[in-house]
Amino acid sequence: MIRLAIWIAFTLVVCGRLGVDAFGIVIYGTGAQEMKLIVGKLAVKSGDDCSIIFPSDDRLKLKSRNIMYGRDHDAESAANPAFVSTGEEIGGALETADGLIITCDEKAGVEEKFLDTLLANSPKLQHICLLSQMGGRLCTTEDLLKTKCTLADIKLSIIRAGTLKGGGPGGVDGSEFGLSKYFDDTIFDLLEARNSMAFDKFSLGARVTAGDPFPAAAKLFSSSSFEPSDTTTSRTVAAQALLTAIKRDDGIDISLSSEKGKTPPTPEEWVDLLSAI
Question: DSSP label at 250?
């Protein structure tokens, strides 16, 4: 709980969000659904304005809020990130966006025409962060963004993940580093659930490596364990990395691996980790 409070307070102070307008973040993704929810939850906790581009499905929205905050959450709370679905809602969110976070997984990138639509409707955009995959599987999206961000004078950060794991509340009493306990309850495979919860208790450290040095095939050998490795990545840690990178004055290009740790890095540690690359 103490480390989580430090994360929130530090983010508010260092990013200059006390007494000024919040940093506006829009999240879009063709995959990695849980990642979008964790990023949105942590962004709002740190005082940012956050909208998630989301299907217009009320049942899916309710389930997602349950995963984020538990089944007894207040769906109307101002502390919730906004789910935007209609053209008007998405346009309104993009109009005030300072940062855009795009989450992809190994199945799909983002179509060029949709990238063009996002950029054309984001007049204040300063920085785009792409959650990509190790092994170059999403290089088409990466290459498109590199070209478009250069032309539009927008900073770009690429954060590559291995096999994404965990994302639940972790093992510290009274704190939630990621999603709610209800997220763990939605994993019906017992072995997968056990490994996911163990990962959130013991593998919340982070190791940052420049570029894309780890082959995609290496992920196959670490997908069924909760032990940290080069090619596994905590969802919670990846969300923190995205939210730290989006406010940097320059872009980064990294791969994010897991390390042993019962708590994720502090904001100060994130600044050091990303500045060292």
Answer: S
Three-class secondary structure of residue 144 per DSSP: helix
**What digits encode the pLDDT tens for the residues 176-195?**
899 999 999 999 999 999 99
pLDDT digits (tens, 9 = 90+) for 212-223: 999 875 555 555
3-state secondary structure of 119: helix
Q: Is residue 171 included in any domain, yes or no?
A: yes
Q: Is residue 244 part of a domain?
A: yes
The enclosing domain of 142 has a CATH number of 3.40.50.720
- The whole domain housing 116 covers 2-15+25-275
Buried b (16+ CB within 10 A) or exposed e, 102-141: bbbbbeebbeeeebeebbebbeebbbbbbbbbbbebbeeb
Question: For residue 207, is it within any domain?
Answer: yes
Q: Name the token pair of 32.
A: 């990695």
| pLDDT at residue 83, rounded to an integer | 96
Please check whether residue 134 is in contact with residue 231, taking contact to mean a CB–CB distance below 8 angstroms: yes
- What pTM does this model have? 0.89
